[in-house]
């Protein structure tokens, strides 16, 4: 028959309590007696004090500390502690009286083996209760600290899972939007049976490879992001033909710099989707500058102030992704005037 672990634990705890109170009994016997000899009357006298000592101690460690002190109900803790102390004092006095009466048959002068006053005896009982309570309080604080640490770890784990799920959700929103625009362009060329269609398919293939296999990585080389921006621009140039004017510049961007995938491409996509053709031309100016641990990304497109600007799914998503991935490490400014809509992004790659 297998032993119940809970029963075994309770038996061990009960045994430890019994051994501890036997030790306290011996302690009382040693300090209340006269000389180094142990008199049985002192042992009996100490036994009379044990119920008061045990009762006050258990009230303190199992009621006052966990229910009032640990829960920060300080007023009730102080009030009930005073009540407990008063009851302890009266209980100790009655225990001393009845112990002496029982042991001497009301002839108190016979109890010459006691060497301590009633005040010392009551102080000893209080001291035992106080010491045990101090150890219990330490144990409760350690347990609470452990529970708090476990709770914080669970909260952090939940936050990380939530963050990961939100990032995946945002990426899922970007993918259909990106594909919709690109496939629309390709569909138009296919209808015209244009010679540029194979080149468009090749560039779209490169972009799909980036979207399907690279975008789930936490970081990709900045050079990859730049190359796919160029592929995207090439696809759009085929669609817009002579109605598009794009300038793209990059400065001091080494191959060792890494960023989150699809970080800048949605800004480019947004400029093409929401940019306005002025004087027969859609103008877009893009620049990426790398200096130390910072990246400065700037993009602006021709824009008519009279028409309300729509930020689009891509731009709204990238704002959320920036907050999740680069919180407190980015500056995003969006400006518009009568002719231009501009986005300025400064990104710090160094962790705070």
TrEMBL record:
GO CC annotations, alphabetized: membrane
GO molecular function: phosphorelay sensor kinase activity
Keywords on record: Coiled coil, Kinase, Membrane, Transferase, Transmembrane, Transmembrane helix
One Pfam family of this chain: His_kinase
Domain of life of the source: Bacteria
Record keyword Membrane present: yes
Coiled coil feature spans: 139-168
Ranges where the Signal transduction histidine kinase internal region domain occurs: 166-243
Keyword Metal-binding: no
Transmembrane segments: 14-35, 41-62, 74-99, 119-138
PANTHER family: SENSOR HISTIDINE KINASE YPDA (PTHR34220)
Protein name: Histidine kinase
The organism of origin for this protein: Winogradskyella flava
